[in-house]
Amino acid sequence: MKTEGRNPVFELLKTDKTIDKILLEKNPQGSLNKIFAEARRLGVRVQVVDRRVLDKESTEGRHQGVIAFTTDFKYASIDDILGAKSENGSLVILCDGIEDVHNLGSIIRVAECAGADGVIIPSNNSASVTEAVIRISAGAAEHMKVAKVNSINRAVDVLKKAGYWLYALEADGKSIYETDLSGNVALVIGGEDSGVKRLTREKCDFTVSLPLKGKVNSLNASVALGIAAYEVLRRKQ
């Protein structure tokens, strides 16, 4: 797997993942020097190459002068996520049909910044954690436990048994600002076109929404998740 971009690669160096090698542009400047120094300190092999080599290796042409090569992304299990439960209440994010890599990358970034214990995605009809998702997450995917499951509905059942309250984010729900968000919280966010699937929504304990005051009738999935996750965080402080 390739990780491209200065911030994602620098974040990757903070993890315990095995990095096979790093390709670094000749005559590095600014943060590339920090990456080079940190990689050398950790004993990671660095190859200094011409920019055209990076352009050839780059998947999306946004390498910013550096590409790291690692093994495939290692998914966590739901048990791994449950094991990280904090004393003042845990936050878990479930993605029900998030197919756009930009949304998934942004959701993982929000989850990591808001202190969530993990993100759960389905095996089918969903984006996976790819090089693009890691880059879009600004490296947050390297620090966040992401579990891939066969069924989101079964994951909902597991979380309920573990003491979580499940909240589906939907436009016609009760305002999240008027909802009790204490205890262990699991937020379910659906795809932009389909929303949270009917059966999944029925399994959730609550349906909550964000007030919309403009003429547009919906928010981007990652933006909606960000607002909701930080409202949960605010209540826990």
Describe the structure.
This protein has helices spanning 6-12, 31-42, 51-57, 78-82, 101-113, 131-136, 152-161, 198-203, 221-236, and strands at 2-4, 19-25, 46-49, 66-70, 91-96, 118-122, 146-149, 164-175, 184-190, 206-209. The chain is of the alpha/beta class and 237 residues long. It is elongated and about 55 Å long. The two termini are 38 Å apart.
Q: What's the short story on this structure?
A:
The protein is of the alpha/beta class and 237 residues long. It has helices at residues 6-12, 31-42, 51-57, 78-82, 101-113, 131-136, 152-161, 198-203, 221-236, and strands spanning 2-4, 19-25, 46-49, 66-70, 91-96, 118-122, 146-149, 164-175, 184-190, 206-209. Helices cover 35% and strands 24% of the residues.
